[in-house]
Design a protein that fits this description.
Length: 111
């Protein structure tokens, strides 16, 4: 059950983050489960009747299966599932599922 990160590894865990065995993270990686609405009308600050400010924020879980490699300066967004032995190249923003060898494959979003 080995997990390795060099330095500056950040996890924002508003909901579950599951990391399998033998997963390696390069420096400056971020795992962020919080998600905000895409429409600006829903992102704006709102006020309750008592004057208390709030915004719409929610979280989506992240699962990284065993034997994955995440290179340096990668941001993994909420709702992502990385299949066994998948890799993410450096300076990438991974926002949708990444799997390998015959499993469902979806694109990685690049910075």
């Amino acid at each position: 059950m080995r997990k390795s990160s060099l330095f500056n590894f950040t996890v924002l865990d508003t909901c579950p983050v599951n990391i399998g065995d033998n997963v390696f993270f390069g420096p400056n990686c971020t795992i962020a489960t919080p998600v905000h609405p895409f429409r600006w009308q829903e992102r704006n600050i709102k006020f309750k009747e008592d004057g208390t400010a709030y915004d719409d924020e929610y979280g989506k879980p992240i699962t990284i299966h065993s034997n994955c490699w995440i290179a340096s300066n990668v941001m993994i967004a909420g709702g992502l599932m990385m299949g066994n032995a998948a890799s993410v190249i450096g300076f990438a923003v991974a926002g949708i599922d990444i799997t390998l060898f015959g499993e469902t494959f979806k694109w990685i979003l690049w910075k």
